[in-house]
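Project outcomes to date are best conveyed with an example. Our students and postdoctoral researchers have been running inverse folding experiments weekly, and each run begins with a structure described purely in tokens. The record below, which covers 88 residues, was selected by the lab manager from last quarter's runs and is presented without edits.
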């Protein structure tokens, strides 16, 4: 006899993350940027707002090396840190 009670069993439907998955940096292509970001976090007592520039550099490295899907910096919250376009 089973003692488990099923109260309106709902089936769980897994779904992929909104931004999708991305490969790990197995070759260490962005390790220098990641270490700089982590050092900044430690030095700033983990106040991430103080390390936004390092975070942006790390994400740009990942996008350039196809370790994550390219996204506009504005969508990632770096509108104010975006490099100015040269005037023509």
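After processing, the design step wrote out the following sequence:
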């Amino acid at each position: 006899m089973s003692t488990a009670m099923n109260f309106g069993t709902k089936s769980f439907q897994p779904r992929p993350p909104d931004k999708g998955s991305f490969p790990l940096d197995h070759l260490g292509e962005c390790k220098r940027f990641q270490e700089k970001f982590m050092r900044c976090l430690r030095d700033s007592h983990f106040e991430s707002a103080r390390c936004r520039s390092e975070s942006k550099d790390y994400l740009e490295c990942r996008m350039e090396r196809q370790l994550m899907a390219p996204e506009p910096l504005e969508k990632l919250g770096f509108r104010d840190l975006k490099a100015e376009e040269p005037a023509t």
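Residues 31-81 form one domain. The mean pLDDT is 82. The training component of this project remains on track.
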